[in-house]
Amino acid sequence: MFNKLFLFVKSRVWLLPTLFSIVAFFLAALVSFLDQFSFLHNTTILKEYLSINSDLAKTILSTIAGSLLTMTTITFSTIMVVLTTYSSQFSPRTLQNFIRDRVTMRVLGIFIGGFVYSIFSLLFMKEKSESYVLAATSSVVIASICVGIFAYFIHHVASSVRVSKLIEKLTDDVRKTIHMQKRKIENNEGISIVKNVPLHNQYSKTLEIKNKDIIGYIQLIDEETLCKNACEEDYFIEIHHQIGSFLSLDKKVITIHYNGEIGEKGLEEITLGNERTTMQDVDFGLQQLTEIALRAISPGINDPNTAIDCIRHLSLCLKEVSKLDGSFMAYYDEKRPVLCIPQRPFEDIVRSSFYQICHYGQKDISILVAIFDALLEISECNTETIITKSVEFSEYILEKIDINSFPEIDQQLLKKKKSHLEAFLK
Q1: Cα–Cα distance for residue pair 372/370, rounded to 1 Å
Q2: Which of 241, 252, 258, 239 is nearest to 201 (CA)?
Q3: 99-111 pLDDT, tens per residue?
Q4: CB atoms within 10 A of CB 190
Q5: Tell me: the pLDDT tens digits for 111-164?
Q6: I need a surface site. Which of 83, 165, 280, 333 has the fewest CB within 10 A?
Q7: H-type helices in 86-134, by residue range?
């Protein structure tokens, strides 16, 4: 439930600026109300240093309102420039990383909130008041804060457009998702990674639930609620699609195996959307890193070093993913299976992460060496099963490329890397 709420907040770009605007409106109303009390104007310090007549207060507020609106426009224009850079140089799938960035939305919200505060402070002013202690003064303070925030925003934008910063951010998101899954399995004895769907022969009836409402990607699965319902009503839930899968209408999503009677069921515990997220979807984060590498080695950009950096970060993520190798995540209640969610096995994830890079970078020896180094990184201190799968993928690479087209020294280098990989099996 918390993940669903968090996803809702992140996916609504307008939400945070709206909240800042509402707070600014009530703050302007409160300050204007306090400004009407005479004891504030009689305080020595406030009277001598902060008391402002109505004409000067209106001038200050109108100037600040116009300035903040200009800063908001510049900020929005800067955001659009960064989005264009993300789309053209990195990947269209990385746009949401900047759009949903907390710093970006907070800066935009602060500027809009400051503008709203100044406008409504002007509206709430009354001609009969002789001085304004708080309204204009607090607006000056807010404007000063906005100037500092704007300077920080420029620094943030300059950092965000660096491809190394984006790669690091994507890697952190993927590893965070993987670590959450690992902790969930380690802290719960009723969850395990299996290769086959757990046996459920004790159930005689089945209920198929199809997608009837929304066309889109599976963004979240509320496992806790599904397990709770399955335990209380004594049935087994089999989900047919993994996180990140695209569902069309009338596509079978869930099969419930049960005995006796069961009430009407729907897809309330499965969140669908028009785009994928990395909250539970490890594959999507890996796909973003792969696309940045592909864009870097394209003839129009020709930046193999960025692609190599992506491959190195992919190896870090895949080394973590290898700890969760299996085809299904099964949930048990006292050894009785209650829920089964499919997931991609390690060999499929490795192939989807590297095979396009191999295809488009097959004539660049530095790209191929980086992939072999990534496989070595994954295989180091890993299980024999994972090492075997890495060796099999290295053979796939050598079969895919025309190794005879490389000079002899490059051929020896690739074969040496493969022999080092095979040495982990001995």
Answers
A1: 5
A2: 258
A3: 777 788 888 888 8
A4: 17
A5: 889 899 888 888 887 655 555 567 788 888 888 998 898 888 888 888 877 888
A6: 165
A7: 95-99, 102-124
- Specify the residue for token string 């969760």: 324
What is the signed CA dihedral for 292, 359, 407, 380, rounded to 10 degrees?
70
Q: With 0-12 CB in 10 A as exposed, 13-18 as middle and 19+ as buried, what is 314?
A: buried
Task: State the sign of the Cα–Cα–Cα–Cα dihedral 141, 143, 149, 155.
Answer: negative
* Cα 8–Cα 11–Cα 15 angle in degrees, nearest 5: 80
Angle at which helix 282-296 crosses helix 304-321, to 10 degrees, equals 160
Residue 330 and residue 197: Cα distance in Å, rounded? 8
Q: Strands of 336-342's sheet, edge to edge?
A: 191-194, 328-333, 336-342, 235-239, 252-258, 205-210
Pairwise CA distance, residues 386 & 362, whole Å: 24
- C-alpha 301/C-alpha 153 separation (Å) is 28
Convert the pLDDT of each residue in 350-385 to its tens digit. Answer: 999 999 999 898 888 999 999 999 999 999 888 888
